[in-house]
Amino acid sequence: MAAMSARTMDGNEEGNLKKEKLGHRRIDVQGEVSYKKVPTNALMAAIQLGIANSIGSLASTVKRDLLLQDFEIIETVNFPAAGTSTTPSHSYGDFRFRSYAPIAFRYFRELFNIRPADFLRSISTEPLKELSNAGASGSIFYVSHDDNFIIKTVQHKEAEFLQKLLPGYYMNLNQNPRTLLPKFFGLFCYQSLGKNIRLLVMNNLLPQSVEMHEKYDLKGSTYKRLASSKEKAKSHPTLKDLDFMDAHGEGFHVDRQAYELLMQTLSRDCLVLESFKIMDYSLLVGVHNMDAGNSNGGPRFSEGDRSEDEIDNEGEPGTSRRDDGVLDEDIPGRIYARNSNGDRLIIFLGIIDILQNYRLFKKLEHTWKSVLHDGDTISVHNPNFYAQRFLTFMQEKLFKKVIPPPGSRSHQQGGHHKFRSLVHSYMALKTSPSRRRNRKSIGEEGEKEGGAVSARDVQPIIRSQGRRSYQRADTESGLRREKRKERLFAPSSATEEPEELVVSGV
């Protein structure tokens, strides 16, 4: 009986351990997290040490043009616990640290205006924060203390695929600077006791300084694209395609120019992904509702903050913004919009999970899933079809192109409103005055003075812009101008226009 009882207990414990295992990530009975049996706190410290050494060693490398062979270089440094003449002593055990394509990634960081000193300050000066939600892959996610960067563990195949992708990624950055693809800042590998843990440093799409009232992971698929009840129970859940369609049946309203520029960017990005046979990627969408306020005590707009035109156009979603200002010029992937209730939104966008190549396993997965369900609705699909379905969903479901009706005041005046300036003021209020004062000193005056700069200084400040003055045109002349415009920009009868939402009323 005792033996039976012991076996039962062992079975229960084994079952509990299985519940705490996801991929290479494990949580023991004490709550300690490990990855490939390496405690994550020790892994985090070793990562910081390795990255600091890798970035610091680049300072002595002369800057030059990027060459094709730079994408294939791998540098390895030994970190014995006792230390060497070039590495410090530490208590994390002997390990080796590999840096992939260091010259190429230095170029990428410069392209994104990230100074080496700022990068090191974010990654290496303070402990990283480990995200408790590992995701479906069981990866470990670390976030820099200033929320600017994410370090994610990736599988061998993903790291290998990224190395092949880098030359095409480089071309896309030069040809499409407003790309929504992930911003890669470094690829590294921690090696110890026969274990290889590969690490990818990326941008953090959703800044913690701005509250996200909604968050979506969208693939353009409908098969099982509902967030689980467990996910929905979280304070900030990540919802999926069917959840979005249920909550926002009319999509987000943006004006014509913003819509066309955004779709052009998405089309170019999808073309790059399609050329590398990449599929199963998502569009991560973070929504900050300016009119819902901020549960953390952030500012709200009062009636006095709004222009006369905004008040007059109440109930006309998508019209209270400048035609040339709805896409943020400084931060790609940020767009100003309205929902069907007319609430003003700041939407953060970025394509994620691009390291899924359509290999044999994915082809088999699509085959057996399509037997059980409509093959065109499942997320795993060939790259050409996946890209087209992805774009169609974003064009028809996520965003709706809005034009004010002919003869309305906003139509006559070209939609010239204060919305973008208000957004800039709103975002600036979320940043402390000291942060604004110290911004210029990052990497310049701060380094010269030798003083420590707060990590918050890294976050960009969006300055308020003044409202341009203009004279109201009389209705008759305004209508004449609009008729001329309509004749000029009338679409060809052979060209199919996406759905436009025409707002009625003045």
From TrEMBL:
Q: Which GO terms describe its biological process?
A: phosphatidylinositol phosphate biosynthetic process
Q: What does UniProt give as GO cellular component?
A: plasma membrane
An example of a GO molecular function for this protein is: ATP binding
Record bears the keyword Kinase: yes
Q: Which UniProt keywords apply?
A: ATP-binding, Kinase, Nucleotide-binding, Transferase
Q: Where is the composition biased (Basic and acidic residues)?
A: 441-450, 471-488
- Record region (Disordered): 1-22, 294-327, 430-506
Residue ranges, compositional bias (Acidic residues): 306-315
Alphabetical list of SUPFAM superfamilies matching this protein: SAICAR synthase-like
Domain PIPK residue range list = 39-398
Record InterPro entries: PInositol-4-P-4/5-kinase_C_sf, PInositol-4-P-4/5-kinase_core, PInositol-4-P-5-kinase_N, PInositol-4/5-P-5/4-kinase
Designated name of the protein: PIPK domain-containing protein
The scientific name of the source species is Pristionchus mayeri
